[in-house]
Amino acid sequence: YLVLWGSQWNNNDPSGEASILQSFLGGVGGSSWLNSVTQYCQGVASGTTYCNGAGTPAGNPSGILYGVWYDNASAAPSRPKQSQLAAEAVRAAQYFGNTAAGSNNSTQYVIATATGNSASGFKTQYCAYHSSTSSSYGNVAYTNLPYITDAGSSCGANFNGLGANAGITIVEGHEAAE
Q1: Residues 6+ apart with CB under 8 A from 66
Q2: N or C: which end of the chain has fewer CB within 10 A?
Q3: Phi first, then psi: what are they for 69, rounded to 5°?
Q4: DSSP secondary structure letter of residue 114
Q5: Are 77 and 117 spatial neighbours (Cβ–Cβ below 8 Å)?
Q6: Is beta strand 129-135 parallel, antiparallel or unpaired with respect to 138-145?
Q7: CA angle 62, 63, 69 (to 5 degrees)
Q8: Rounded to whole angstroms, how far apart are CA atoms 178 and 167?
Q9: What's the alpha-carbon Rg for the chain, to the nearest Å?
Q10: 139 strand-pairing partners
Q11: How far is C-alpha 87 from the chain's CA centre?
Q12: Taking the CA of residue 162 as centre, how many other CA atoms within 13 Å lie in the half-sphere pointing to its CB?
């Protein structure tokens, strides 16, 4: 699920990140690019380097973007803390009706913040990251996805001559694969 968090998104998306993210997440599932994740598996002994038919391999189903929520009725914190990002992910689980623990077992909420709104460390320590939080809806996994073009080349802009917006899909693609 993609969550565009905060009224800061209202008429303020200079790089078009909202539509780029929706298009990317709407088409990446089932793609040959994301098929690279199927080499990984769970339920195998620690230290295993090849699944070789053991455990459960990661999947690559098509249609992985189940919904988009413009949570823009009020402003998001200008410098959100991890606890605030986690709370937004829990609100997203409620918004999308994922209120039973089982409904969040294989769900990721991408919490995208608007331009100029990012947690401490963005651009210098990370481009995005994923985490999880415990809630009454079970374990809720989320990605902190700041407005990537704010970081410029620090987070993929113009990588291999791909243009100023290249980092948007490079960074979110990395998080989606993980």
Answers
A1: 1, 96
A2: C
A3: -125, 120
A4: P
A5: yes
A6: antiparallel
A7: 155
A8: 16
A9: 16
A10: 134
A11: 15
A12: 13
Residue with tokens 């918004």: 95
Q: Two tokens at 29?
A: 């599932």
Amino acid found at 177: A
Single-letter amino acid, residue 83: S
Q: Tokens standing for 110?
A: 């991408």
Residue with tokens 């829990």: 90
- pLDDT, averaged per 10 consecutive residues of the chain (178 residues), comes to 97 97 96 89 84 84 95 96 98 97 92 96 96 96 97 90 92 92
Q: Does residue 12 contact residue 115 with C-beta atoms inside 8 Å?
A: yes
pTM over 0.85: yes
Q: How far apart are CA 29 and CA 64, in angstroms?
A: 5
Asked whether 115 and 147 are in contact (CB, 8 A), the reply is: yes
Query: Measured between alpha carbons, how far is 53 from 160 in angstroms, rounded to an integer?
Result: 36
| DSSP H/E element including 56 | strand 56-57
Residue 129 and residue 39: Cα distance in Å, rounded? Answer: 22
What token pair was written down for 162?
Answer: 């791909």
Cα 161 to Cα 106, 128, 156: the distances in Å are 35, 21, 10
d(CA 105, CA 138): 8
Cβ proximity of 32 and 97 under 8 Å: no
